[in-house]
Specification:
The structure is a homodimer. The first copy, chain A, is built from 10 helices and 5 strands; from the N terminus they run βαβααααβαβααβαα. Chain A is an alpha/beta fold. A 5-stranded parallel β-sheet of chain A has the order 2-3-1-4-5, sandwiched between helices. The model of chain A has no long low-confidence stretch (mean pLDDT 88). β5 of chain A pairs antiparallel with β5 of chain B, so a sheet runs across the interface.
């Protein structure tokens, strides 16, 4: 079966956003990355900054600590509310039209759908460090530190909401190293697998 | 750069051997899987059964326990001797001619070579259970149990000799789920990436 939904999970700085955008363009699919923030902000009334920051990244230092954060007797924190809203939106988008969705545990949310291709894009730290400086500029923190922080926050968030290990090959149909293979090859592979008829 | 060496790490029952053989055929490369056992047996005098069993699988229940197993004051166990022999052979084979090598931590042994493509082939347990019965027949242990045992032994062996996590996407250029994508697609992807000029 041709894949009508492609989810891209990605390490910070690996070029996952670019890969996703180019795959969407090549296949004529809708593309959702930051666009999800806008939708969720409208739906929930949460601020764009909060959604951008907490939508994929844990503010706690472990999945265990995260489970206590901001939860009251009713059991729902603002982060849980955000996750539930993102989840609902992703399910709606996936049903609406063929699309590429970047991040936000979409692989887990759409798990088991045979029309969905789940991809993980990763790269070595040197490639990612050079790329985040090129894409987002320098900050007072070193690129290596920014990578370590983002990796950790995304991994905890993913683990907390999916009970799966971030970056384990078993969660994905396809994992690609953009550092060694390059972005062009990654795009070609994903497009050709999405089009393949199995 | 075209890839002249392809290593295939694979979960038991995922079809990694078949994928590797077909990739080698499509590219006109040499193919090494069980062939390595013959070479190492000649070189070391170790029995084929020992090499087959211990060449990729830890007899201990953890990497920590493994580090004590059969090691004397000189620090080398039979397993270490086997690993060293396999390593030497893999380096020689990689230098000799373009090839596909299945298993035996070849990805780690050849790490850093830009002419080498490291692939991990995995699949869900249902796919693998059906496949091992089809390929190797029934035994008194259930296919699920055989998978659990092999996975665990290979993971410990890999961890012990490479200090890396078995099945973590970061160790590989490409990871492919043969359960969801099928063996044909896996072969096509690997061949096209191996031929790509980056």
């Amino acid at each position: 079966m041709q894949k009508r939904i492609i989810t891209i999970s990605r390490e910070f700085g690996s070029g996952g956003h670019t890969v996703g955008a180019r795959v969407a363009e090549a296949l004529g699919y809708a593309f959702y990355d930051k666009e999800i923030i806008e939708h969720v902000a409208e739906e929930t009334g949460l601020s764009r900054a909060f959604i951008e920051e907490q939508g994929e990244e844990s503010p706690a230092k472990s999945a265990f600590a995260y489970s206590f954060l901001g939860r009251n007797a009713a059991g729902m924190s603002l982060e849980d509310y955000l996750f539930a809203s993102q989840r609902k939106l992703i399910l709606e988008l996936a049903d609406k039209s063929p699309c590429v969705i970047v991040g936000r545990c979409a692989d887990y949310i759409l798990k088991g759908r045979t029309d969905c291709l789940n991809v993980f894009v990763h790269a070595d730290k040197e490639f990612r460090a050079a790329r985040i400086v090129e894409q987002y500029g320098e900050t007072d923190r070193s690129p290596e530190k920014r990578i370590r922080e983002k990796d950790k926050k995304r991994a905890i968030n993913y683990k907390y909401y999916t009970e799966q290990e971030w970056g384990s090959a078993n969660n994905y149909d396809l994992c690609i190293d953009t550092g060694t293979l390059g972005i062009d090859v990654a795009v070609d592979v994903i497009v050709s697998v999405a089009k393949s008829d199995r």
